[in-house]
Amino acid sequence: MSLWRATATIGGFTAISRVAGFARDILMTSVLGAGMVADCFVVAFKLPNFFRRLFAEGAFNAAFVPLFTRRLTEDETGETARRFAEETQAVLLYVLLAFVGLVQAVMPWFMYVLAPGFGDDPPKFALAVELTRITFPYLLFISLVSLQGGILNACGRFAEVAGTPIILNLTMIAGMVWLIPAYPSGHVLAWAVTLGGLLQFLWLFGSLRRTGMGLRLRLPRLTSDVKRMLGLMAPAAMGAGAMQVNLMIDLVIASFLPAGSISYLFYADRINQLPIGVIGVAVGTALLPMLSRHVAAGQEEDAVASLNRAMEIGLFLTIPCAVASMVVPVPLIATLFERGQFGAADTASTAMTLAAFAAGLPAYILVKILTPGYFARHDTKSPVRYSMVCLAVNTLISLVVLWASMTGRLDSPFVGIAAATAISSWLNVGFLTRGLLRRSQFRPDARLRRRVPLMLLSSALMGAVLWCLARLLGPWSGAGIGNLYRAGALAILVAAGIAVFAVLSQATGALRLRELRGLTRGAPGS
């Protein structure tokens, strides 16, 4: 399967998941608003997701997928790869059970680390602890899902994995529709998260059996293969999770800010995660096994070509999204979230936060594309060195923002925290790019160097059109306007943005339709 086609498969199912996710978030904002219960649930939801993205998806996939892919390449029967996967599953399950049990036991103390600002509000602190205890078993199920997904992706089965998050979104939606207000909203959502994780695990369990890769339970043993994977996984926990650590730092610092700040960051990040999930995760997920195969076969030129095309695809789809989010964030937030307990002031604050996050959107995507260039070569140490510097920068800027807020020098500190994440992500891109260039493992080809400025030009012109159009549509999307009118105005903006960017891309040569068709056919390096 070509890189573009694999990306389109993953991105397509991810897009469906994001639509379901937006439906979930629309219900959440209506039910929870941006108050105490919302802040507590965001913390409870973020904690297991943080460890999932940092260790299970980030570090685990970085270490497991290249090793598993190599065994698939060397043994056509797949038995060697299956045995390695079963040994990994045994150790992973043992570690997860111990870790989840430990965190459950020390949750109150853990909360002082995660959200220390809640300590000054005992009811808020107690609710956050209770909800997090309910959601934390989700980490167990979703980590096993990451193992199952890594196996299926290495086997070229992307659709089942990409569709898995839809299950979680539908489970949470069902809980809100059927169980609220009969039961407390925060508790309903917390239980729905854990149930959704179990259903995701069962879904991929069946997919593996249908693929002929069903895993048997084994007793945990630290075999040489597992030890090697764990050795690669340790540094990758930071290298692959720099953005997640940045977001967690945002959460810790935001816990000291006024009520609603955590919710503004969460809702803005949810919008920002749409292109990251549809584009960045899709390209990165498809790219890692492809690069691993090229490197295992000694095809370095093909590996470099694949990286160039991945960057071209990622930037072409991401730059216009970033520009649109920075130019017209208010209509987007108002249409999706402004109802029920979520008012106009919440819309304005969340829109500003989204614009700050969006400034780093291309960087978030590029990190997901560049990092597999290291992982495919079993180098998980270099990214961690880069990420540590970026984490320090992010923390320093966020602390300055907190100080400015507490001394009355800054009215919207949550915007500064989002900007700190964007700045540190761009710095990470610089480090990752420089490292690959020095090793000659990435060389921007003439096509990429020519296309990126044209993409920037097309996106800037599109942004100007959207800004003017948003002013014309203002009376149909402002305060007091019905949801139907707002949705219509937003639909016009989205359609106009897509159409204008498509026409400008053709006119400037940022991307030609005939080349797009060539990518889908899986030309070399595609």
Task: Describe this structure as you would to a colleague.
The protein is an all-alpha fold and 526 residues long. It has one domain. It is built from 21 helices and no strands. The chain has helices at 3-32, 36-74, 79-105, 107-114, 122-135, 138-154, 159-162, 164-179, 185-211, 224-239, 242-254, 261-296, 300-327, 329-337, 344-358, 361-375, 382-406, 413-438, 446-472, 483-508, 513-520. Helix 14 (329-337) packs across helix 15 (344-358). It is globular and about 65 Å long. It starts with a helix and ends in a 6-residue tail after the last helix. Mean pLDDT is 83; it is low at 518-526.
In short:
With 526 residues, this protein is mainly alpha-helical.
| Sheet with the most strands, sense and barrel status | none
The total of helices stands at: 21
Q: In total, how many domains does the architecture comprise?
A: 1
Rough shape?
globular
What fraction, in percent, of the residue positions are helical? over 70%
Overall strand count? 0
Terminal CA distance: 10 Å
Described by its quaternary structure, the protein is single chain
Q: Mind telling me the C-alpha Rg? A: 22 Å
Task: Describe the protein's topology.
Layout: H1 3-32, H2 36-74, H3 79-105, H4 107-114, H5 122-135, H6 138-154, H7 159-162, H8 164-179, H9 185-211, H10 224-239, H11 242-254, H12 261-296, H13 300-327, H14 329-337, H15 344-358, H16 361-375, H17 382-406, H18 413-438, H19 446-472, H20 483-508, H21 513-520
